[in-house]
Amino acid sequence: MAASASGDKAADDSLYPIAVLIDELKNEDIQLRLNSIKKLSTIALALGEERTRNELIPFLTESIYDEDEVLLALAEQLGNFIPLVGGPEYAMYLIPPLESLATVEETVVREKAVESLRTVAGQHSAQDLEVHLVPTLQRLVSGDWFTSRTSACGLFSVCYPRVSAAVKSELRINFRTLCQDETPMVRRAAAGKLGEFAKVVELEYLKSDLIPTFVQMAQDEQDSVRLLAVEACVSIAQLLPQDEVELNVMPTLRQCVNDNSWRVRYMVSEKLTDLQKAVGQEITKNDLVSAFQFLLKDSEAEVRASASAKVTEFCANLDKACQEQIIMTSILPCVKELVADSNQHVKSALASVIMGLSPIVGRNNTIEHLLPLFLIQLKDEWPEVRLNIISTLDCINDVIGIQQLSQSLLPAIVELAEDSKWRVRLAIIEYMPLLAGQLGQEFFNQKLRDLCFNWLNDHVYAIREAATLNMKKIVQTFGTQWAETNIINQILVMCKNSNYLHRMTCLFCINALADVCGADIIERLFLPTIKVLSTDPVANVRFNVAKTLQKLSPFLDQAAIDEHVKPILEKLNTDTDVDVKYFASEAMVSSAGGYS
């Protein structure tokens, strides 16, 4: 009797994980249902491989009806389930629930289910692939709802390489069927996977089956399909011999460059440098240069901005034998027009790359042709355009030296430094160390140093914080001797400012500069200032004194700590403010010397 009771208990225990899962998946609380799905691997481990295959997976397949968030989590979990069902030879058990998930209405769930199916497919043997996954693919292809047919598009490339010739033929027919589907969403999904499928199809079938399909999709009535055909264009061009690219790809590409939809032209612009590498130098020279000119002059600002951002990369990829001649005669005239474009995004995109042309065209062409364009952009009404030019100054510095631009740079830097938008001020601060290094100490001292001090007194905390870090980087560039002569005294004077925020900034600067100034300056200049601030009437200043001393202590020897640091911290440790006392005691414990 006792043995029977023990057996019943063991049976109850073995059913427990499934029972709990069933209860949680039926709970009204979505978070509880979501958590139970995320614990599926733990439940599978508790059940063991056989019961996971025979009980858990069938249960999950039958219960696929829930909120999208729960289904998404389930689709993701099942992709990692192969070891839990017994390894690759049992991977087919995961196909039914994933097939169901691949047909739901929510796109992200379907995409995750297809991703997991692709993972599962990779673990199948070639035989199991034909027996289990190919029929799943064919069911999805022939599904009544467009959702299953869109999901099918993502499975062709993982099945095709490992199946028999007869099945391959069926798959090519199925794929072409989806490319001609009456539902635009299905054609769009097929167009998106065309390039991927082309890479695994044999060359003869690429020419006979997929290229006609590609040409047809590039003429689809829906621009969302046509623009995805442009992506496939790159993949197909990479797979074909050069002489066949001209015949099979270029007519379609020329048509896309002149497409009525700006979205298609935009996609051509986005993929142009990839196409350039795929089609080779001869076709680039004969076709793509004129296409690029056309895109740079496009009527839509989005297309011009995309093309502008590609100017330097496109020019760098040109055949060296004719590179300079093509740039000067074909590309530069378009660039000159874009510098004065009516759209700020176009000018900004161009400004972010135009400096990169300098090393390509050389010193003389830079001075004669590019320098005037840089000067125009430095005076542009839009801060982002001026910022983008300044941010890439290192390109031109290597070619002609920044001194050529210094007098024009200054007004642009000053305007940006005082811009009403604090994010613009923040951006120029980040470039200041680079500018300082390139323009030199004398120029910095005369023209830029005061701007750096103004930022330390800015009303926006993020600017003051960035300005302190800026000071540290400039000291790293110019050295501690320069710092002591030119900036440290002006920083320390801030400790007497009537505004406590500026007194705090003084402490923050000391914190930042400690890393680069060394023990002598800390002891000789920083500690006397800190001592003054330790008696500040504002508690925030006093507890920041404690934090600063904690930061400085590792740079000081024991004698300096005993003489200067310890007395200040001991006094702060008896402060009336609880925060000051806390940070003082923290500093006393962690500072060198280990007093408490």
TrEMBL record:
<dbReference type="InterPro" id="IPR021133">
    <property type="entry name" value="HEAT_type_2"/>
</dbReference>
<dbReference type="InterPro" id="IPR011989">
    <property type="entry name" value="ARM-like"/>
</dbReference>
<keyword id="KW-0677">Repeat</keyword>
<feature type="domain" description="Phosphatase PP2A regulatory subunit A/Splicing factor 3B subunit 1-like HEAT repeat">
    <location>
        <begin position="282"/>
        <end position="362"/>
    </location>
</feature>
<dbReference type="GO" id="GO:0019888">
    <property type="term" value="F:protein phosphatase regulator activity"/>
</dbReference>
<feature type="repeat" description="HEAT">
    <location>
        <begin position="370"/>
        <end position="408"/>
    </location>
</feature>
<feature type="repeat" description="HEAT">
    <location>
        <begin position="17"/>
        <end position="55"/>
    </location>
</feature>
<dbReference type="InterPro" id="IPR016024">
    <property type="entry name" value="ARM-type_fold"/>
</dbReference>
<dbReference type="InterPro" id="IPR000357">
    <property type="entry name" value="HEAT"/>
</dbReference>
<dbReference type="Pfam" id="PF22646">
    <property type="entry name" value="PPP2R1A-like_HEAT"/>
</dbReference>
<feature type="repeat" description="HEAT">
    <location>
        <begin position="249"/>
        <end position="287"/>
    </location>
</feature>
<feature type="repeat" description="HEAT">
    <location>
        <begin position="171"/>
        <end position="209"/>
    </location>
</feature>
<feature type="repeat" description="HEAT">
    <location>
        <begin position="409"/>
        <end position="447"/>
    </location>
</feature>
<dbReference type="InterPro" id="IPR051023">
    <property type="entry name" value="PP2A_Regulatory_Subunit_A"/>
</dbReference>
<feature type="repeat" description="HEAT">
    <location>
        <begin position="331"/>
        <end position="369"/>
    </location>
</feature>
<dbReference type="GO" id="GO:0000159">
    <property type="term" value="C:protein phosphatase type 2A complex"/>
</dbReference>
<dbReference type="GO" id="GO:0005829">
    <property type="term" value="C:cytosol"/>
</dbReference>
<comment type="similarity">
    <text>Belongs to the phosphatase 2A regulatory subunit A family.</text>
</comment>
<dbReference type="InterPro" id="IPR054573">
    <property type="entry name" value="PP2A/SF3B1-like_HEAT"/>
</dbReference>
<dbReference type="Pfam" id="PF02985">
    <property type="entry name" value="HEAT"/>
</dbReference>
<feature type="repeat" description="HEAT">
    <location>
        <begin position="94"/>
        <end position="132"/>
    </location>
</feature>
<dbReference type="GO" id="GO:0005634">
    <property type="term" value="C:nucleus"/>
</dbReference>
<protein>
    <recommendedName>
        <fullName>Protein phosphatase PP2A regulatory subunit A</fullName>
    </recommendedName>
</protein>
<feature type="repeat" description="HEAT">
    <location>
        <begin position="526"/>
        <end position="564"/>
    </location>
</feature>
<feature type="repeat" description="HEAT">
    <location>
        <begin position="210"/>
        <end position="246"/>
    </location>
</feature>
